[in-house]
């Protein structure tokens, strides 16, 4: 019951973000700030606004012991008696804000261990298998929620006239096969060999070993790409990058990879780093990054076979 109340609170924050996003230039919310986040990215105004909205509403709710966010350097202590921890990417795809394209909020919730102090980051260092609920809200032509509490992944659409997220697709099943892939091909020279070989075979199309043509899509917002994969299948990759072995891949385990892996597995898909299940990665620090390969089950398995070869 308390989890439902927490989710309602979180979604109230997302509705507020949805409203702010839709105001765009009219409210002066587009463009960048002068500050950088701990990831070394210039913060967009909407990154900061969205983070503040979620931080305020979750801190005041009473349900949350602490939060961690892409836009916060450290864990933020909330209510010492709160039973939950919330990790979030307040605004995913924020480079899309200034071009009126897809963006969203990604979140995951775990129980707060009794022993922890509210400002103790180590409580967040749990593998994704401990998640009790995860989801995203996509701020697109409609605002849509994808949510899982561990019993399937379900889609809801925001009814702006009544202000509620209404169930519009129960128990999403990601098609097991696909002919569509998503990867930022400008990084090709930095990919590790299995990814070079796998993508090479997709691009070879009908004439290559796969014997069929593949299409490519890239929204530059994980939330948009994952929504497409949940809706019609596909494989999404942000793989290991040889440039910086200290920083494997771009996407963040707590705020992006884990929640999306949870939703994908609950919808019959797979989510891997290339070397193991994303949800089993034991985090060593809250802002940790991981390689991400997820989507249609059989296609992800095919991709992983290149790692074993
Ligand atoms: P964020 O806006 O939260 O920092 O995340 C951006 C991420 C992710 O949404 C997307 O898949 C990826 O960055 C896009 O990366 P490229 O700039 O390489 O396209
Ligand atoms: Mn960012
Ligand atoms: Mn993001
Ligand atoms: Mn973000």
From TrEMBL:
GO terms for cellular component: cytosol. One of its GO terms (molecular function) is fructose 1,6-bisphosphate 1-phosphatase activity. InterPro entries: FBPase_C_dom (IPR044015), FBPase_class-1 (IPR000146), FBPase_N (IPR033391), FBPtase (IPR028343), Fructose_bisphosphatase_AS (IPR020548). Its cofactor is Mg(2+). Substrate binds at residues 92-95, 184, 250. It is found in: Cytoplasm. Residues 2-170 form the Fructose-1-6-bisphosphatase class I N-terminal domain. Pathway: Carbohydrate biosynthesis; Calvin cycle. It comes from the Bacteria. Binds 2 magnesium ions per subunit. It catalyses: beta-D-fructose 1,6-bisphosphate + H2O = beta-D-fructose 6-phosphate + phosphate. The keyword Metal-binding applies. Its EC number is 3.1.3.11. Mg(2+) 1 binds at residues 70, 89, 91. GO terms for biological process: fructose 1,6-bisphosphate metabolic process; fructose 6-phosphate metabolic process; fructose metabolic process; gluconeogenesis; sucrose biosynthetic process. Keywords: Carbohydrate metabolism, Cytoplasm, Hydrolase, Magnesium, Metal-binding. Mg(2+) 2 binds at residues 89, 92, 256. SUPFAM superfamilies: Carbohydrate phosphatase. PROSITE patterns: FBPASE. Belongs to the FBPase class 1 family. Homotetramer. This is Fructose-1,6-bisphosphatase class 1. It comes from Paraglaciecola polaris LMG 21857. The lineage of its organism: Bacteria, Pseudomonadati, Pseudomonadota, Gammaproteobacteria, Alteromonadales.
């Amino acid at each position: 019951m308390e989890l439902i109340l927490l989710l309602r609170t979180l979604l109230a924050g997302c509705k507020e973000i949805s409203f702010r996003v839709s105001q765009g230039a009219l409210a002066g919310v587009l463009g960048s700030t002068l500050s950088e986040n701990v990831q070394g990215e210039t913060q967009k105004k909407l990154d900061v606004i969205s983070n503040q909205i979620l931080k305020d509403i979750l801190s005041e709710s009473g349900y949350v012991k602490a939060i961690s966010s892409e836009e916060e350097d450290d864990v933020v202590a909330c209510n010492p008696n709160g039973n939950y921890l919330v990790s979030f990417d307040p605004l995913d795809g924020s480079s899309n804000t200034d071009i009126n394209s897809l963006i969203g909020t990604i979140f995951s919730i775990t129980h707060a261990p009794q022993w922890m102090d509210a400002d103790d980051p180590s409580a967040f260092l749990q593998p994704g298998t401990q998640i009790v609920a995860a989801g995203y809200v996509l701020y697109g032509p409609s605002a849509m929620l994808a949510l899982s509490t561990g019993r399937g992944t379900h889609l809801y659409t925001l009814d702006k006239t009544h202000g509620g997220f209404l169930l519009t697709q129960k128990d999403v099943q990601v098609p097991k096969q696909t002919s569509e892939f998503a990867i930022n091909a400008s990084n090709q020279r930095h990919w590790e060999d299995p990814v070079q070989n796998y993508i090479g075979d997709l691009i070879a199309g009908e004439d290559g070993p796969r014997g069929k043509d593949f299409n490519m899509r890239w929204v530059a917002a994980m939330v948009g790409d994952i929504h497409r994969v949940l809706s019609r299948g596909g494989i999404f990759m942000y793989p290991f990058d040889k440039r910086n072995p200290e920083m494997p891949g771009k996407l963040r385990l707590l705020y992006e990879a884990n929640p999306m892996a949870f939703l994908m597995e609950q919808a019959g898909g797979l989510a891997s780093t290339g070397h193991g299940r994303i949800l089993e990665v034991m985090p060593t620090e809250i802002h940790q990054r991981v390689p991400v390969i997820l989507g249609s089950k059989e296609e992800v398995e095919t991709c992983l076979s290149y790692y074993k070869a």
